[in-house]
Amino acid sequence: MKSVSLKEIKLELAARSADDLLAFCLRLSKFKKENNELLTYLLFESFDEALYIANVKVEIDLQFDQINKTNYYFIRKSIRKILVNTKKFIRYSQQKETEIDLLIYFCTKLKLFSPSIIGNTQLQKLFDNQIVSIRKKVSTLHEDLQFDYGIELDAMKA
Fold first, then answer.
1. pTM
2. For all residues of the chain together, what is the average pLDDT?
3. What angle do CA 152, 105, 37 make, to 5 degrees?
4. How far is CA 25 from CA 1, 5, 39, 123, 139, in A?
5. ∠ at Cα 144 (41, 156), nearest 5°?
6. Which residues neighbour 131 within 8 Å (Cβ) at sequence distance 6 or greater?
7. In whole angstroms, how large is the CA radius of gyration of the chain?
8. Do you find a cis peptide bond into 115, omega within 30 degrees of 0?
9. Quick one: residue 22, left, alpha or beta (phi over 0 = left, psi -120 to 50 = alpha)?
10. Where are the domains of the chain?
11. Can you give the pLDDT at residue 24?
12. Could you tell me what percentage of the chain is helix, strand and coil, using 3-state DSSP and rounding each to the nearest 5?
């Protein structure tokens, strides 16, 4: 089955009743965990972005605590998984400040991680690429925010 364009879906949803829309949302939430998580964010967490960021940071902390530290292969695999999850939470919010805050927090946790990422070139490249990505995103913000985030990034890089 071929899916229709977003415009066609938007027009069709506009023509449906509120009860139909409710049924569609509930049915979507049953199919994928991500759909359910997005609906949870939109309904319960989007009104307080600071609380959402704090909850995601707690989740990142838990994931870093669960990393298997026996060798760098497992560490790399776990850290990539944490980054994927972090980016998934960023997609739900779609706010630049939230994205930057969470990526800076991820990089801070990665830099403080023991055993050090300096001993592994792949983890060091991942860290450096995230810093470059954050700098690009910061450059699109207001000057005051650019300055504040710039200080954080410079401190992290030192």
1. 0.85
2. 89
3. 140
4. 21, 18, 8, 39, 36
5. 75
6. 107, 153, 156, 157
7. 19
8. yes
9. alpha
10. 47-157
11. 83
12. 80, 0, 20
